Each structure stands twice: as structure tokens, then as C-alpha cells.
Amino acid sequence: MMRTSLHRHAPHALRHRPVCDQSHQNGHPARQCVDQTHRIPTSLGCSMIRTLLLLAILLAGCLIPGVEQSAQAQIQSYSRQGKPPELGLDLLRQDPYDLIFFTPQSGGGWAMVTPLPFRDMPSRRDGKLEFEVMGLQPKKFGAKWTEIERIDFWEKRLEQETSDRIAGGDFTGAFPFLSILIRDYPTRPGLRNLRSDFLFKNAFQRAEKGERGEALALLEELHQYNPEYRQKEVINGISGTTSTLMRSLMEEKQYAIAQQLLVRLKKSYKAYNLESISRLENEFLQLAQEKRDQALKALEAKDYRLARTRAIESINLKPDIEGGEKLVSDIAKAYPMVRVGVLQAAREFDPVRLDSWAARRAGRLLYRNLFEIHGVLPEGGDYRFLFGDSELSADRKLLTLNLNLSKLEPPLDKLGIDFLADQLANRARPEQPEYYTPWAAAVDGIAINGPRRIDLTLRRPNVLPTCLLQLNVDGSWFGGEAGEPTNDYKLGEIKGEETRFKLTDIAKSNLSDPSKPQEIVEIHCSNAGDAVERLRRGDIDVLDQLFPADAARLRKNKDITVVPYPLPTVHMLIPCSDHPYIANDNFRRALVYGMDRENILNMLLGKEGAGSAGCRVLSGPFPAGLDPQDPLGYAYDQDIKPHPFEPSLSRLLKQVAINMMEEEAKRNKETPPKLREIRLAHPADNMSRIACQTIADQWKLTGLEVELVELPPGKTMPDPDQADLCYVSTAIWEPILDARRVLGPEGLAKCEDQLLGLGLRRLEEALNWGEVRQRLLDLHFISHHELPVIPLWQMVDSYAYRKNLRGVGRNIISLYQNADSWRIEF
Questions:
Q1: 32-59 tens-digit pLDDT
Q2: Which CATH number do you get for residue 696?
Q3: Please, which residues have CB within 8 angstroms of residue 708's CB and are 6 or more apart in sequence?
Q4: Are 685 and 723 in the same domain?
Q5: Per-residue confidence at 805, pLDDT binned at 50, 70, 90?
Q6: Residues 6+ away with beta carbon under 8 Å from 127
Q7: Three-state secondary structure call for residue 143
Q8: Angstrom distance (rounded) from CA 418 to CA 403
Q9: Residue 312 counted as domain residue
Q10: Most buried among 38, 257, 274, 314, by the most CB within 10 A?
Q11: Contacts of 294 (CB under 8 A, 6+ apart)
């Protein structure tokens, strides 16, 4: 059947050549005689192609539906009649090829051939043309020039596709074709005009749709690229689009962006004396004066929030407006306030929350912990006792807590030693809400030895018992209400994009420095670009989370300090439903092989952030450290490499999982589960959104159906049956503790796997750091192969603040770690 198909579609000019080809007859091996070139193979060649094709399908696709058809389509690179199929955008998925069309006299037909050595029809065409047919390389074929009607060269087809799509207004479709021409054929005649046509017509189409910003960008790019192209129309377009865009920016109160755009356009088009520029300058000055006057009135009325907003708007409209900077300083003196830009809004407040950046950040502003991490030491984290100091005996079986309350501010200085001992005991009692399994397994006895000393006897040597005591300290510890803040700030109101934190009454009564912020306001920014722009123009004073590319750009700003956090975050996908296929380890492997994690990470990092220290794809659920010598990487096996991107293997493993499910259902006489769509949840921030959209697109290419589920602001895990997988950014800063918090039955993954359970128990029974490391490496190995969670990458984030804010600190784990020391410089 394959033999007949190939023979029927072979062009006449290729089939009828003096070639002798015999297959097996009477037990004799086939003989093949050719002259200097090969022709389309007949019986033996077809049989070989069919055999090789089937082998390829079996090895790469395991007879997965659709694989055989695509392989057959791949070798149909010639035909005796008709025209080649119109591929459209699918043309971009092909390797470059030229099209040879044969004359009707020679039998007609066409062939896709590897790019010919000449890129235009030669003026002299005698003799024979040799070529390789796509899919049949490296065999060479031949045809007389008299049998060739024409040749469509690859780049000419790209040009025609581009031109046709521009003429039809399909600029999205034209763009990839034009990009390839610019990249691979930059010297092609006519390319300059083709690119100019694309920019000009696309700009006016976007302007008609109301996309003024995009239209202006295209017109400016066109003017810079080809200044002589329809110059008058382009300049008029820039002027008109500028006026409309400015009106829109003013209505949206994007004053700083409007002012920056105005300054740039005035400089770039000074020679053209654009009428819109001078008119807009006068309007900006008038509006800036109005905003300044409104700020002065608000200051007199002691409406400090409104006063600051109007003063900043005035400066954004006219940076050199008279009295502008002094007005901002006067408002700050009257009511010190810090505005913090955040990408994830906080709705829960927990300083040690593993899976929520926002909860950790805002929780640290409200609460203290009994033991707080301040960094990483050669042997685990640096945990400091809030109420004094601690000491671990040489045999690691006695932890002593020494209270020293004299240097603490109220209410922390009111702690009773009996109450502290009770809290430590409750943490080991199953009937108490404070119960914590690892602490109960570790502690054997609690004794008060004097007015300021508690001795904690451990069941066995413990390398880092302090990490088990990161419990929140709230107002109930000092006779107040449960959940009452114990830091200097309390939650005010949550309104729109703003969450306000105000000084507590106790902090106000003890206030001695007038430059300490009375209020810290978190501003939820829709994306990183918006947040960076707000910081630049002074709308916000601090930005809590910067990605490497944004950090690199902001470091060039002399008014802003950028500092990396010392500990990375680990990003992963957490199973969170009873989806039968996600419970299958082969299917989870298919998901991993179906993601190009390296490219996704590079896309998130951007050009400026590429190669940032510590940002890398992971092979397991633990951090790899910022470099191979980083002590934080003590749980990570550097010899285990991340699973590569293998889409064909992903499809194969998916089919294996389906087959296994069907076989199991058949044995149990049940209906096999249907492979339903995968619901992928992610937090409501731009980076998570982009990462998950890209992951979903790549999974769809392997034949999966994927639905994205965006969680409400402040939520990091979905409700039951809301999603099947969840994208999570975790703070795994102490693997000896966090291994169970991620992989255990009560952890994020809620994993009941017996092998993992045994590994976790052996880890908690480790007597020294050598055993700890080896057992964590074992867990890394198991997790790499069993995939209870799907590791993605680790990211090193930064924070940034304007230099008039003092006391932020540099080596801080959490943004608000030193918030009680923040001071505004007037």
C-alpha cells in the first residue's frame, strides 16, 4: 500500500529515468544500479521507508494516535499532479525548502527540495539540475532544465506570504514571516519597503481600533528606521496620535508617563515643530499648578494622604514646578508615611507561611516569632530567640532558653516564664491547637530552672531544634486578644488596591522620633512594569519584589537602592485534587517532559536578568543555593540533573499512563477514567500568570487540554476541587524542617507515599549533619523520580527603595524585618 502510494504520487520527471532496481526474488538479495544520481525509489526503497517509518513510530510515539499520520505527511514532499498544500502559518514550522514545478510535457507535478545553491533562476539553464527531495536526504535526484517549469524559492515565498497578509490587514500573521526575513535575509531587495509598509499600515489599523500607544510606537519605529518613507503622513500621524494618547493618559491620571513621553517627543521631533507638543506643555503646566494648590489645601485640612497624592501628581506633571519638592517634604514632616508597592496583596498574615510571599511579608509587619531566622550559617539557619538567647549542648540533647526582657519594647517585655513553658508544652500535646508533630517527636521534657531559664530535654540528638520553634507570638501571650499584633504596626483598612498599616497605640505612646512612619501603605500593582514605574516617579517609596531584569534596570537610577534578598524562592507545581491521571507517576513525568522550563525561566528573567546568580531550573523540591558552596543547598544533589524538555517522550509517557489506566480498569471490570482537562491554578500576580500560560501552551502541544484558574488576591492555594495543580512560590529555607511541610501527608503535597514517608521519618531521626545531608539527598532522589511535586526553578528576588528612606537594611530575609527602624529623611 505504501509502495503504490509513493509510485502514484511521484512526479513523472523523477520516476522515468534509466534506473535498475530489483527487490528480493527467488531468495536473491536486491540489487540496485544507479548512475551518478538516485531517483525516487521503487519497491525495495518503499519497503525500507515503510519499515523505518514504523520503527520510528514505535520508538518515538508508541503508536500514539496522530504520530503515524504526521510521519506519512512528512514524506509526501512530492506529487505527480496538482499543487502543494497551502501551509499558511504552518510554513514556519518547516525547515526551509524550495519548490520545483515540472512542465506538463514532462508529466507535471512538483517536489519540495532542500534549498538550492543559487537563490534566483539562472540565466543559462542547460543540462540537468541535481537536488535533494525533503525527507529523502541525502539521496540526490535529477531533472533536465527543459522539464522544469519554475522554482519558488523559500525567501520569495516568505516575502509573498508577508505581502499578502499585510494587504489583507493580517499583521499578526505577517509578523513571524517578516521576522524571519529580517533575521535570515537582511539584504533582500525590497525588504526595506516591505518592513516600512508593515509598520505604516499596522500603525493606522491600531489607531483606528483605539490602540494609540501601540500606534505611536509603530510610527516612531518607522520614522527611525526609514525617515524618508511617506514622511509627511508619518509625522502628521505621530502628532495626531500623541494628542489622543496624552488625553487618555491624563484621564487615567498617568501624569508621570505623560510628562516623560512629552519630554521625549519634544527632543526627538524638535526639527518638525509639532503643534501638539507646545499645546500640551501649556496644559501640563496649568494642571500641575492646580494639583499643587489642591495639595496645599489638603495639607491645611490635615488630609495628609490626599495632600501627598496631589503633590506627587503636581511634580509628575511638571518636575520643576515652583515649590513642588518643598511641599512634598512639608507633607512628609507633618505625617510620615511610606508607600510600598507589592505584586501580591496580603489577605492572610503569617510570618512563617511556606507558600505565600504576601502572608510572610505582611505577617512580619504585625507579628514576631519565638525564634526568627536571620540568615544561613554553615550548619543550617541562624535562628534567634526573641526573648533572650539560646544554647544547644555539645551532645545536642539539651536546648536552654535564657530570658532577657530588659531591652524589649512593650508588650514583649511582659512575657511570663510560666506562660512560655506552657506554650512550649502545648506545642507537644495532640489535644492542643498549637500541636506540632515534629516538635512533639523531638522534645522529652520541659523544666523551669530559675526565673529566667527553661531547659528543653530532647529525645535524641537534634542538629537544629530551634527551627521547630518558629511559632507566632500574638497579643494573647501578654493578656490581650488572640491575633492582636505584637509588632509596632496594626492592620488598618483594606480598600481597593491599598492595604493600610498604622502604628499601634503602644508604639505611638513610646514614639520618640518624628521621622518614624506613622503609616505604611501597601499598594497592589498589577504588574512588575507598573510597580517599577511607580517607584521611579515617586508614587511609591519601596518595592517589595523585583525580578532580576527589573533589578538590573533600576540599579542605574541614582535615587533608588536595589538589594537582593539573601535566600531564594523555590517554584513548583503542587497536585491538589483527585485527578486520576495526576496521581499516576508516568503522567506526572509526561507533564515534566512537556515543559521547556529552561526557556520559560529565561523568558521570565528577560534579557537583562539572564544568567542571574542563583536563578536556575531545579531537579527536586529543595533549593540549590546561590552557588555550589552556598550552605543553603545542603539538601540539593547537584549530580541529579533536571528532566530535559522532550515533547515526544511526554506524548509517549502520556499514552503509557492511559494504557495502564485502561488495563487496570479492564482487570477490575470498571470503566476507565477519562483524561479530562487539567486545571492549573496560579496566584493573581503577573509572573505566575505568564509562567502558567506558557506551561499550558506547551502542554497543549502534547495533546493535553488545560484550563487556567486565577486565584483571588491573597490566596495561594485553591479551594477543594477548584484546580488539579497549583503554581506555588515557596520559602524552603530550612530543608530539614520544610521537607515534611512540603512532602508530608499534612504538607502542601499531602503525599501518602510510603517511600517518602519512610524518608521523612529517617530524616527526623538523623543524629548529626552528615546523616541529615545524606537523608535529604535520598529524599531529593526519590522526589526527582516519583514527582510528588513538580519542581520548576528557583528565583532570587530583590527589593528596592528610594534613598530618602533610612533603616531598611541590606541582609534581610523579609522586607519588614527592620520596619521598626525605618525613618524618612526630610
A1: 333 333 333 323 233 323 323 333 333 3
A2: 3.10.105.10
A3: 679, 680, 681, 682, 692, 693, 696
A4: yes
A5: very high
A6: 144, 145
A7: strand
A8: 12
A9: no
A10: 314
A11: 306, 310
Three-class secondary structure assignment of 522-589? EEECCCHHHHHHHHHHCCCCEEEEECHHHHHHHCCCCCEEEEECCCCEEEEEEECCCCCCCCCHHHHH
Q: In this structure, what CATH number is given to the domain that contains residue 165?
A: 1.25.40
**pLDDT tens-digit map of 648-669:** 999 999 999 999 999 999 999 9
Of 642, 585, 690, nearest to 793 (Cα)? 642
Pairing of strands 489-495, 498-503: antiparallel
Average pLDDT value for the chain: 87
Is 260 domain-assigned?
A: no
Instruction: Answer with the residue of higher pLDDT: 492 or 529.
Output: 492
Same domain (yes/no): 582, 631: yes
Instruction: State residue 18's pLDDT score.
Output: 32
Residue 705: closest CA among 675, 662, 674, 673: 675
Peptide bond into 517 cis (omega under 30): no
Q: Do 495 and 620 share a domain, yes or no?
A: no
Cell of 404: 532577657
- Do residues 542 and 523 lie in contact, with contact meaning Cβ atoms separated by under 8 Å? no
Among residues 207, 223, 252, which one ends one of the domains? Answer: 252
Give the burial class of 95: count Cβ atoms within 10 A of its Cβ; 0-12 exposed, 13-18 middle, 19 or more buried.
Answer: exposed
Do residues 528 and 587 both lie within one domain?
Answer: no
Task: For residues 163 and 157, give the distance between their C-alpha atoms in angstroms, rounded to a whole number.
Answer: 10
Integer Cα distance of 110 and 374 in angstroms: 71
* pTM, 2 dp: 0.74
- Residue 743 belongs to domain spanning: 569-796
Quote the cell numbers at residue 582: 495526576
Rounded to an integer, what distance in angstroms lies between the CA atom of residue 578 and that of residue 71? Answer: 36
Shared domain for 593 and 689, answered yes or no, is yes
How far the first Cα of the chain sits from its last, in Å, is: 86
Identify the pLDDT of residue 380.
86
Total count of domains within the chain: 5
Give the C-alpha separation, 574 to 286, whole Å: 54
For 382-432, write each residue's pLDDT tens digit: 999 999 999 999 999 999 999 999 989 999 999 999 999 999 999 999 999
Q: Are 416 and 476 in contact (CB under 8 A)?
A: no
Comparing 41-55, 481-495, 671-685, the range with the smallest average pLDDT is 41-55
- For residue 346, give the nearest of 511, 537, 489 by alpha carbon: 489
